[in-house]
Design brief:
The protein is 28% helix and 18% strand. The chain is α+β, with helices and mostly antiparallel strands. The protein has one domain.
Length: 92
């Protein structure tokens, strides 16, 4: 994700807000890499065909405007990510 720094700054600000109200921030501060996920797999297999297909795709860069942050409850009770939005916080 380019540029990554604004997303990292936003994440740090959100972590600071979480730390103001919770005794522990759930995710570690280190190791965050801004990205867009296009798929998940829960089985083992070769990644090369998928990486090659993505590399070969002639897709122009996309732009995103982040207007709010959602406070969510997330779980994987049914072997997939599911969440409920508790609050939406406008940004900017």
């Amino acid at each position: 994700m380019v540029p990554a720094e604004p997303i990292r700054r936003l994440r740090q600000e959100l972590r600071s807000a979480i730390a103001d109200v919770l005794p522990e921030v759930p995710e570690p501060a280190e190791g965050f890499n801004p990205h867009v996920s296009i798929a998940y797999s829960h089985a083992e297999g070769p990644a090369a065909p998928y990486a090659e297909a993505i590399e070969a795709a002639a897709v122009p860069p996309a732009k995103a405007v982040v207007t709010h942050a959602d406070l969510i409850v997330i779980h994987r009770d049914h072997q997939m990510y599911e969440w409920t939005t508790l609050a939406e916080v406008p940004l900017g």
